[in-house]
Amino acid sequence: MTNQEPSSNPTTTTATANTTTGLIISKTEILQSFLSTSATNTHLSQDLRQIAASLSHNHSSVPYRSLRSIWSASDPLTRPDLSALLAGSQFILTSPKPRQKSEELKARLRKFEEAAERKAYKEMVKDITPQRDESEPFSSYKDQIGFGLHVALTMFTGYLVGYYTFRALFGHNVVMHAAGGILGLVVGMLVETLLFIIRASNQDRDRKTTFTASKIKKNQ
Known about the structure:
This protein is an all-alpha fold. It has helices at residues 10-17, 29-38, 46-58, 64-73, 82-85, 103-125, 141-170, 174-219, and strands spanning 24-26, 61-63.
């Protein structure tokens, strides 16, 4: 007897590489009998006989690709019909292997979880802790610069108004002109200060009203 070379049959290579992958079917008595016979079938290659023996003794299920390779390489005159061979078998579904998360993905997920926890905490205490009022005076450099420019412009305007008013009243008296300018500057500064106090008082009253309303809503 002459055994077939394993490398001469491309079906053998396919069967060897796919003994545990692809479609899986349950083993029946017909399949068990066929595999047991195939394990000693000299018409098959050594690799296919080893696969048939392994599936016959060690497995309760059979990969369809391996079974099809063994059946295709068997003698057409002695092998059973494929439909009869598969009669009574059922598909066996296997769960896919869980996907491993990379360290970068784990780090990003931790950041998202921490951000979600901070957001949930803020939502939980928002009725207890007064929120920072974005309209608070001097809350940003832009507001500070704008207020400073506005005060400087008001004082300069007051100086000019006082200067030319005293110039019209006192003629060519330079000292009185300067005194009028200084008086106008002081008046402009006082007006700007008064307006600032009024705006700050209104904003403080609005904050207190908002906080009181939130507290009442929480108590309800």
